[in-house]
Design a protein that fits this description.
- The protein is of the alpha/beta class and 255 residues long.
- Helices cover 37% and strands 25% of the residues.
Length: 255
Amino acid sequence: MVKEVKIKIRNLHKSFGKKHVLNGVDLDLYKGESLVVIGGSGTGKSVLIKCIQGLLNPDEGSIEIDGIDVVNEDKTTIDNMHAKMGMLFQGGALFDSLPVWENVAFDLVQNRGVSRKEAKIVAIKVLRQVGLSRDIADLYPSELSGGMQKRVGLARAVITKPEIIFFDEPTTGLDPIMADIINDLIIESAKDLGATTLTITHDMASARKIADKIAMLYQGKIIWYGTVKELDKTTNPYVKQFIQGSSKGPITVEK
């Protein structure tokens, strides 16, 4: 059975001044699969996500979502694509001035015309799905632990039942046990929705657990792509150095 490509990226380039961040990225995300993109800081992982979301316009190349090339498309088309997407931000990116339930239901109220009363009911339901009780709905983000904030961010990412979910360093700043809980919730949430997910992370334990496929981004290109099992058997020196966390190898860090 041939898998359906949800997102197809070809020859994607993005520069900022003289700095070439993406230098010809080719990548396929298949419907219902979890793809994890690994790579060092500053390799362009976040820029890649922003290009897919339409927040940045690439200098060259194509990004097809459900067969539609969204690069340089009109605002209506981009907005329609955004409606299919959810995002869990690295730092949570919760609104400090809003209670938890309003953070979770923000898109429902602001963009989808759902009443505040109904939105709160839905938000509480989704909070329960990520392991948070009704009691925290009226609290503010500053009153929550880091792990709870991540769960709130996940609830916000999935409340609209998106077809595509992006996870930006979902386990950063969490202890190993809470990181594993978040990984389990990511897997469960994506499975329940049948969503296609793209995660960027440095956390190899997380990558191994949540990924169907892993791709490594280096110097603006995808230099390796495969399954977790293939990752462990790779002879690619760049990939081996990265997953082993070794200072010795072809990858050098600017001092």
